[in-house]
Protein 1
Amino acid sequence: MYFSYLPQGSIHGSLLFLLYINNIMKITNIKDNNNKSKSLLFVDDKSLFIIKPNPTNFIKDINGVFTNINSWFIVSLLSLNFEKTSPIQFLTKNSSLIPISVGCDNKIKSSVTNITFLRITIDKTLMWKSHIKMIILKLSVS
């Protein structure tokens, strides 16, 4: 029996991982008349942006996308870390909040008010107050 592996953190491991998961973009990048969905893949992190002008089927569509992603993970012998999944709804001054709960494998996550994306804290109104507070806190500690 012969075993082969790549050390964690090696440049080859990252490249092979990206090649392995590259086709996840096909199931999440959707564009039609009413719906737009765009994926962003950064190393082993995936972000999904869903744009819907009509909120009627918004929650149903979001849960459908999560079901598709989870199915892809199962088929690809990977697992979705739902604990690190955070749905957020970006709002403008004129838009109203739609209560969002995303479900996957009998687990439910409610919408959050801010997220950290590539070490930048972003809140639901796309203001920088949360990020500035975090930076001030880090600077005051050091």
Protein 2
Amino acid sequence: MENSEERIAMACPYNGKLCIGGIREDFPQNEVKQRVTCRMWVGVAGKLPQSEKVVHQYDCAFAWQVTTHIEMSQTNRFVASSSDKISNEVHDVVGAYQILGRSLQAVGNEFRILNENIKRLPEPGTPEVLEIPPNGHEGTDE
């Protein structure tokens, strides 16, 4: 879009008549005898991507369509790449949860084995009979 100070006259994209600053000669006049501004004359504020300069420009909404379509395409690409990043993060988290699940399952198995061994212990107060090897030493035959 060109700068507002540089704008002299443009043709209306809808009927081809001369349009200067959103005002045409065929527009009606308001109470103070000024021509009414076209409803399609809009201001857009933002930053130029190359220079980060803040701008506020007026132009016909029809003329802004190309710019807004380009901006929307860039936004859609950004959202798509962000979605891919989120998908990768979710995949990593799911993998971590699967590892955690397997670890908890292994711990559960260890507790099950420990519980089975505890059940094999003699009841409290029951005398335990120990077998003493004939030589008096365990594991060595002298």
